[in-house]
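The authors assume throughout that readers already know how a fold can be written as discrete tokens. Each protein is reduced to its one-letter sequence and a matching series of backbone shape codes. I therefore recommend that a typical entry be quoted early in the introduction. For illustration, here is how one protein appears when written out as sequence plus structure tokens:
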Amino acid sequence: MILLRRLLGDVLRRQRQRQGRTLREVSSSARVSLGYLSEVERGQKEASSELLSAICDALDVRMSELMREVSDELSLAELAESAASSEPVPTPVRPMLNSVSVTSVAGVPTGRVTIKAPAEAVDVVAA
């Protein structure tokens, strides 16, 4: 089973180590106890959004960057888990796009405009 808190902790640890900083430095800067930050990094504690924000500020890392890296790790972990269990990996479904040309709107010429949209999302009514 994939635990998000472990992936998050791994990414936080890597971010800190890339900067060559100690747990003590980051915990002091984030105003989080050293023990608690250590538990978060080891995936033993769930971090609140407020705590993550403080840690990200201390590491000078955007939370969106942190979450993107966690998301990438999660995707890889899911693929590995899926491959290990021999389950087929679902393929993302992309809607077929149809082109619709518009030459006038309510009788007013528009020039030629082409709109690409999923076929089921566009209703074309002949005037």
Remarks:
- The mean pLDDT is 82.
- The two ends are 57 Å apart (CA to CA).
- DSSP finds five helices and two strands in the chain.
- Helices lie at 4-18, 23-30, 34-41, 49-59, 63-84.
